[in-house]
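Dear Dr. K.,

Following up on our conversation at the group meeting, I've run the structure prediction for Sphingolipid delta4-desaturase N-terminal domain-containing protein from Cryomyces minteri. I'm pasting the input sequence below exactly as I used it, so you can double-check it against your construct before we proceed with anything downstream. Let me know if the numbering doesn't match what you have in your notebook.
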Amino acid sequence: MSSSVSTTTVAPSRHRRPQDSATGSGELKRATLAADRPDSDRFFWAYTEEPHRTRRQAIIKAHPEVTKLCGPEPLTKYLVFAVVTLQIGCAYLLRNTAVFSWPFFLTAYIVGATANQNLFLAIHEISHNLAFRSPLANRLFAVFANLPIGIPYSASFRPYHLTHHKSLGVDGLDTDLPTALEAIFLDSILGKAFFATFQILFYALRPMMVYQLPLTRIHAFNVVTQLAFDYLLVQYAGGKALAYLIMSSFLAGSLHPCAGHFIAEHYVFDPQPGSSTKDPLAPPPETYSYYGPLNILTYN
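The predicted structure tokens came back this morning:
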């Protein structure tokens, strides 16, 4: 496998200069590669429309029964309550355990990271209004699901993520696309290993580097609620309990089996020797399906 990974990007203008990159997101059915693009350009540039809407229409036309699966899932709220309770319980039980010890690390990696990755994806579902029919109930419940993650992010995640859906692959709008700075430092095997290890930090910080969101009351509520929860946890269970939650969140977005969905969703791999393609201009797919047992833990 080549160390090079490319990104399919929708160009707002055919004459706009692309940024170099090493990782990325967005699935496009066809990329039109401009002849004047330099070899160092790590993007697949396309001039097709954003595919989510047209693909949705095509799927519903071919399989109208799929609409019966749309809408809120009643079990989501119960699963979130259970996972939040599990994480708070683990944090309390580890309150007297040394942070730099195998029991602490293994619990954070095996239990905590799996649980917090589950909550990451629960917040994704809730952001699409799939826990309750009321939008406000979903916003408030996302803040609750955010508690064991330790850092407030649910209120900011939703608008960035919905823009990602509406402007899939559009440079300057889709914050799942990497920045030019990432291209400089991550375009190597070691760089990609670094990215995979610390990808939760890229995922959290990149959107703010691309564009700023206006702060709303739900943002303030998210921050105040999370800080109050963290304060109470430290007061009654100690700093190690909060350290467990933070470590769980970091490991959930690091080298962890449940974090594999980030790679399945956002990487383009170079074609392998001997692989066949009907269209040499079309990039390899940027999303890959997984049908294994981890889907039980990841709302898939």
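Two things stood out to me. Confidence is low (pLDDT under 50) at residues 1-36. The chain has one domain: 7-297.

Best regards,
J.T.
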